[in-house]
Request: fold
Amino acid sequence: MILLNPGPVTLSEPVRRALLQPDLCHRESEFSELQDEIRRRLLAVYGLAPECWSAVLLTGSGTAAVEAMLSSLMPPDGELLFLENGVYGERMRQIAAVHGIAHQSLTHPWQAPIDLSRLAATLEGRPRITHVAAVHHETTTGRLNALAEIGALCKRLGRGLFVDTVSSFGAEALDLEDWGVTACAATANKCLHGVPGVSFVIVRRDGLPRPDVPPRTVYLDLARYARQQDGGGTPFTPSVQVFYALAEALREMEDDGGWRARRTLYAERMALVHTGFTALGIAPFIPVEDASVVLHAYYLPNGIGYPQLHDRLKQHGFVIYAGQADLAPIMFRISTMGAIASRDLEGLVRAVEGVVGSTDG
Ligand SMILES: *Cc1c(COP(=O)(O)O)cnc(C)c1O
Reply:
């Protein structure tokens, strides 16, 4: 089966085999070495200096990392401004509400870009806001939000910036230093091509709370993970096998040329799908130049419902992805992540052509 959903991804054989390495106790030195290697490699993906930045590993999905970032790094007296144009911005707001973090939101229609002048006006008009939270790649629609511009604004107006980079880390440009990012959250099983079960937060060391600040959560207390992982330990039982697979996936990525090579590869894959779909009259949901290389959303072809398209393509060995919430009846999504080949995507286009053709007239 070829997975064209935005994670978990089709695994490479070396990553799959990495799951079968020797059993390991997480209190032994072999685990510390494995954990150190992953933390070092995660920072190296975007060339971050370990003196200034910490990659903190968690056992949990991407949402666990996002929740750990917001609940652990927001100061008790801080106020957070969310930039929402999809499901994942909305989810961050729900996290703040659950943890009793003071917040407000700039909501946008889901097909719209983030309104930078509204952001500037809001920050200028409300000095109480200490931090902004944004989604880099809003997987709901495939939009790559203008993080460099958002970051520049936050920097100029002296606000911290938290970013959900769950579906962009490893495949899109991400300049945490230059863009003034305080922390970002991501996961093993999207653009990094690992196995689901490990996620992480990359945080400026000076953005970690002081030890006397009481945590809002036990399991997701990032400061505690950061302290213990710096000493080679970790607070709770990690998913050891998934760590093995992530280390292998990161080695593979470096051998393949890092995030830039991955971005180029995804862009080629996306161009192939896009050209094929355009010829079939299937239209993109947002302008292609606004979309990431990681995922594109398309309008369902005339007269074909998502379940029909999904089921027919699955018979051909392809798993596509539905639209979320209000977009479910009109949209489908294709992701380029994972160990897939161009010929797989050519096969997808042919299979879609078969479905569209068979329902014509
Ligand atoms: C996939 C995704 C998440 C979280 O996913 P999990 O299912 O918790 O791993 C968060 N944000 C974005 C932008 C995503 O694409």
User: Anything to note?
Assistant: The pocket of pyridoxal-5'-phosphate is lined by residues 6-7, 61-63, 66, 88, 135, 137, 139, 164, 166-167, 187 (CB under 6 Å). The mean pLDDT is 97. The chain has eleven helices and 14 strands. The radius of gyration is 21 Å.
